[in-house]
Amino acid sequence: MSAQSVLFDAPGPKARARNAVYTVGTLILFAIGLAILYLGFNRTLTERETGLFDPATWAVNPTGQWTAEKWEPFLRPDTWTDYVIPGLQNTLTAALTAAVLAIAFGLVFGIGRMSDHWWIRVPAGAVVEFFRGIPLLMLIFFTMALPIVAYQVFDIPTGTFQVTALVAVVTGLTLYNGSVLAEVFRAGVLAVPKGQSEAAQAIGMTKTQNMWLILIPQAITSMMPAIVAQLVVLLKDSALGYIVAFPELLRSFTLVATRESNVIPAAIICAIIYIVINLSLSRFAIWLERRNSRRGRPSTKPTAAGGAPVAVQAQPGPAAPDATAQEPAEGGATAAGPSGATAPDEGSDKDDEGPENRRD
Amino acid sequence: MEAFLSNIDRVVDGFSWTVRLTLLSALFSFVLGILLTAMRVSPVPLLRAISTAYVEGVRNTPLTLVLLFCGLGLNSALGLSLSGTVAWDVFWWAVIGLSAYTACFVSESLRSGINTIPLGQVEAARSLGLTFTQNLRLIVIPQALRTVVGPLGSVLIALTKNTTVASVAGLGVQEASREMKLMFDQGIAPVLPTFVGFAIGFLILTLPTGYFFGWLSKRMAVVR
């Protein structure tokens, strides 16, 4: 963000002239690239009889990809109702199911990896590292082959159960993205300030309560952008279902492309749909990040602004340590020693928040 | 397991394609990624716009679609044969697709690395009279690269795993996952050992890469 304005000076007359030259040069290169693509898909790049600068070369070729007939299928409603919408539904079904399952998987194994018992921690870590380290496509292939495994290993006759492409895709997406999310959750929990779980222990919460009531909510809030970013990856990866013939968005577009032999229009429209969905999800993640950083501020900003009130309230200020010093005395003589050392700290912290908050 | 081990030459052959895809795509995507980053921060608005549009567009497109486009669209449309044999022809198209896709992630990592460089570095460079290109080449990119060694390692690992997508129809590179699928379907060896064997193969590729880049990023870290 900062780099752009700092990497170069505000252009003077010479730099402006140079930039104009670069702009024109880029435009020419860009135009040549577009022209090659245009002619290539127009089928007049290599298989033409006319010269390169002949208008006939540049006219829309009726057998090329740019002719109106090739785009027309996407203006017919039945293309959308028969192919695109069902494909989109399947993609979203797979992605949403996998997202929910992956979050559950991630929570279980992320927390498992932080367990105090080695016999939970080590297997959970091994599972996470295994599924994170191997390609998603292999997981999908393996899930598809599970009936064969059942036959070979347990002698269960083939045909007892079948694995549909949807199940295979959802399983693969869950295991892979769940393992990545487990690491995200773990990083989030480890990033929660230590005082939080110490405070939870101090008020007598069990380890489970501490995890679910104190650590996980804060970890999820702070890691929300990373979680949404991973869900974008998940949605994009659901296109791997194409390879195992799961009728998702990409597959329905290839079906249209085969029927109408319009590969390029189909690819372009398919890409646009994916880009729109993923970009809006990414924008949502950025918005969440901004909102989080805004939400973090109120706890610090009043203290920064509260500097003035504290200075004004210079006289009530010294009274606060007195008040806190009396509280441990009421609590018991044994607690007075250790808490006395921290009392000035707490006193000054609470001072900034104002007397209303102190009661909470 | 014996049946799997007796076919070990097929496994090795599959992984040799995986490694070749990974290394060449890593090289090209690295170069393209640096170029895209330089364009992204350049003083010319048009270059910035092209780079932004490319990165945002390709990054949000599924890799399967990118590779299908290379295999079915570009391959036939441009009428280009990149190599004499079909196996190498599809291989090079897969390298192009993987590089085009991975370059976006390289560029995003590098850009975040540039953002961590203290402003004083760049200001000092400019006050010495370095031009934008000198500034980028001598000051910014070297420091940015050192800070993003770790993220680049993750990109490389993701690329290694993404090479499996090169087995899609229209390309069909004989890489490891396709070899595994063929061995499943042909019933050459029991499925479970085959899967475990190929999984171990990928772990052998990805885990050391992760540890190496973790070590390298600590070693290369810029002390500030």
TrEMBL record, chain A:
- InterPro entries, alphabetized: AA_ABC_transptr_permease_3TM, ArtM/GltK/GlnP/TcyL/YhdX-like, MetI-like, MetI-like_sf
Biased composition, Low complexity: where in the chain?
Answer: 302-344
List, for all copies, the residue spans of the domain called ABC transmembrane type-1: 88-285
Task: Give the residue range of the signal peptide.
Answer: none
**UniProt subcellular location:** Cell membrane
Is Transmembrane there in the keyword field? Answer: yes
Provide the topology term for how it sits in the membrane: Multi-pass membrane protein
Q: Give TM segment ranges.
A: 20-41, 92-112, 133-154, 166-192, 212-235, 263-288
Q: Which UniProt keywords apply?
A: Cell membrane, Membrane, Transmembrane, Transmembrane helix, Transport
**By its UniProt entry, which SUPFAM superfamilies does this protein fall under?**
MetI-like
Q: What is its main location?
A: membrane
Q: Which Pfam families match?
A: BPD_transp_1
Query: Where do the segments described as Disordered lie?
Result: 293-360
Family that this chain belongs to:
Belongs to the binding-protein-dependent transport system permease family.
Please state what the protein is called.
ABC transporter permease subunit
Automatic annotation (TrEMBL), chain B:
Q: PROSITE patterns from the xrefs? A: ABC_TM1
UniProt keyword Ligase, yes or no: no
Recorded hits in InterPro entries, A to Z, give: AA_ABC_transptr_permease_3TM, ArtM/GltK/GlnP/TcyL/YhdX-like, MetI-like, MetI-like_sf
Q: Do you know which SUPFAM superfamilies this protein is assigned to? A: MetI-like
Where's the ABC transmembrane type-1 domain?
A: 15-213
Keywords noted in UniProt: Amino-acid transport, Cell membrane, Membrane, Transmembrane, Transmembrane helix, Transport
**Membrane topology recorded in Swiss-Prot or TrEMBL:** Multi-pass membrane protein
Q: Which residue windows are transmembrane per the record?
A: 20-42, 63-84, 90-107, 188-214
Where found?
Answer: Cell membrane
Origin, by domain of life?
Bacteria
Pfam families in UniProt = BPD_transp_1
Q: Does the keyword Cell cycle apply?
A: no
The family line of this record is: Belongs to the binding-protein-dependent transport system permease family. HisMQ subfamily.
Q: Which NCBIfam families match?
A: HEQRo_perm_3TM (TIGR01726)
Record-given protein name: Amino acid ABC transporter permease
